[in-house]
Amino acid sequence: MIIVLLGPPGVGKGTQGARISQHFGIPAISTGAMFREAIAKGTPLGKELQKYHIERGEYVPDNVVIRAIEERITQPDCSNGFLLDGFPRTVAQAEAFAQLLEQQQRRLTAVLDFEAPQELLIRRFSGRRECPNDGSTYNLETNPPRRPGLCDLCGAPLVMREDDRPEVVQRRLEAYKEKTAPLINYYRDKGVLYSVDADADPDVVFERVLALLNRLRGEAGKEIQ
């Protein structure tokens, strides 16, 4: 089972990805985490990645990203499948990934596109608070501090990060939509795109995902027979 997760910031795909990974016993691969690990270990890839200052959000060339993905998905823990979060980001990357899978005689199972109203995503972000002392995070709606406005651990006043302000979040969401629209259309044309309504409790969303993936696994089994 090979799965790609798409969805705007704050939609909860990281939470769902972790649950899918655990349920099906496949690794969840985040390009950001993969890059940081390569840099920390000082691998040849990591040394090359250092040139691009990814901690500042600088662009990493597609050929470097594809090479990193190829190295990762050929490891033994990916033999039964894997889940990708944060890749591909462009149609060019998607096409290169398709070629890579074809070379390995593997097939993409599904691209899950998590959707939620923009107002909900803005509310989720604008409700986030952070302790400037110890870095602990809270959410006024889903995980509020015991004492309003104060850190549970040290009592310091909580702050809102600049990039969590509603106007900033709205710009990020609009940029995501504009950037990924071609990618969503690409996968829709390939017949592997499935929309997931993420405007619900995480348990409910996971039940929807599980039902979809089990159905797809059943259909794949029939094809093999």
From TrEMBL:
A GO CC term assigned to this protein in UniProt: cytoplasm
Binding positions (ATP): G10, V11, G12, K13, G14, T15, R128, T137, Y138, A200
One Gene Ontology MF term: AMP kinase activity
Record localization: Cytoplasm
Catalytic activity: AMP + ATP = 2 ADP
Keyword Chloroplast: no
Annotated residues for binding of AMP: T31, R36, E58, Y59, V60, G86, F87, P88, R89, Q93, R161, R172
Residue ranges annotated for the Adenylate kinase active site lid domain, each copy included: 128-163
EC number of this enzyme: 2.7.4.3
Enzyme class: transferase
Region forming the signal peptide: none
CDD domains, per database record: ADK
Region called LID, residue ranges: 127-164
Keyword Kinase attributed: yes
A GO biological process held by the record: AMP salvage
Keyword annotations from UniProtKB, A to Z: ATP-binding, Cytoplasm, Kinase, Nucleotide biosynthesis, Nucleotide-binding, Transferase
Entry-linked HAMAP family: Adenylate_kinase_Adk (MF_00235)
Homology family: Belongs to the adenylate kinase family.
Assembly and oligomerization: Monomer.
Free-text function comment from the UniProt entry: Catalyzes the reversible transfer of the terminal phosphate group between ATP and AMP. Plays an important role in cellular energy homeostasis and in adenine nucleotide metabolism.
Note on domains (UniProt): Consists of three domains, a large central CORE domain and two small peripheral domains, NMPbind and LID, which undergo movements during catalysis. The LID domain closes over the site of phosphoryl transfer upon ATP binding. Assembling and dissambling the active center during each catalytic cycle provides an effective means to prevent ATP hydrolysis.
Protein known as: Adenylate kinase
Organism: Chthonomonas calidirosea (strain DSM 23976 / ICMP 18418 / T49)
Upper taxonomic lineage: Bacteria, Bacillati, Armatimonadota, Chthonomonadia, Chthonomonadales
